[in-house]
Amino acid sequence: MLGSLARWLRILDYDTEYERFISDEELIRRSNVEDRIALTKDRRLARRRALRQVLLIDGVSLSEQLTQVLSLTGDDPLRRPLFRRCLECNQRLEEISVAEAVPMVPPYVLQTQDRFLRCPACRRVFWAGTHRTRMLERLESLVIRQD
Predict the structure, then answer these.
(1) CA–CA dist 146, 56 (Å, integer)
(2) Which of 37, 85, 94, 141 could be a cystine partner for 10, CB 3.0 to 4.6 Å?
(3) Can you tell me whether residue 142 is helix, strand or coil?
(4) Residue 64 and residue 81 in contact, taking contact as beta carbons nearer than 8 Å
(5) How far is CA 39 from the centre of its chain?
(6) Which SS3 state, helix, strand or coil, does residue 110 take?
(7) Cβ distance 106 to 36 under 8 Å?
């Protein structure tokens, strides 16, 4: 229910675990064991005493949700390091050489990019293409809406 928020928190370099199908009991267990703040829209879950750290997300739009989380952290999202985590599995990305990227990226990308990052877990490769520019523009619009 908060998949888009999780993705954007990863873009903002927050260590963000997200699992679409997880029981309340498992979410509580993991949150407590890993000392995480559970983000949820489920009011009943948020009231569970066993859950030590929880933030009930009231916002409907992504902008509202992001604003709520950022107000908790006090961070300026435009001053945070960006794009340092895998958007799919949350692992810290590692820089790889152009030579290592050759078999994993399209030829055009090799002609236009000289910096590549790879997820050590799922092996996805990332680079600063036009999608990054669009994501930065979207982030700016999300942040501007919160003012």
Answers:
(1) 18
(2) 85
(3) helix
(4) no
(5) 13
(6) helix
(7) no
Say how far apart CA 119 and CA 126 lie, in whole Å: 8
- For 85-128, how does the pLDDT look when each residue is reduced to its tens digit (9 = 90+)? 999 999 999 999 999 999 999 999 999 999 999 999 999 999 99
Per-residue pLDDT, 145: 53
Tell me the residue length of the chain: 147
Distance CA 70, CA 75 (A): 6
The answer to whether 19 and 6 have CB atoms below 8 angstroms apart is: no
Distances (CA, A) of 103 to 15, 49, 65: 29, 50, 38
CA distance 93 to 86: 6
pTM: 0.86
Rounded CA separation 19/3 (Å)? 8
Helix (H) or strand (E) holding 55: strand 54-56
User: Over the stretch 52-81, which tens digit does the pLDDT of each residue have?
Assistant: 999 999 999 998 999 899 888 888 877 888
Query: What average pLDDT does this structure show over 25-31?
Result: 96
CB neighbours (10 Å) of residue 24? 15
Nearest Cα neighbor of 64 from 2, 11, 118 is 2
